[in-house]
Amino acid sequence: MSDTTTEVWLVVGLGNPGPSYAQNRHNVGYLVVDELAQRWGSRFRAHKTGRADVVEGRVGAPGTPGPRVVLAKPRSYMNEVGGPVKALATFYKIAPARIVAVHDELDIAFGTLRLKLGGGDNGHNGLKSMRSSLGTGDFHRVRAGIGRPPGRQEVADFVLADYSRTEQKELPFQVGDAADAVECLVTEGLEQAQQRFNR
Question: What pTM does this model have?
Answer without folding.
Answer: 0.94
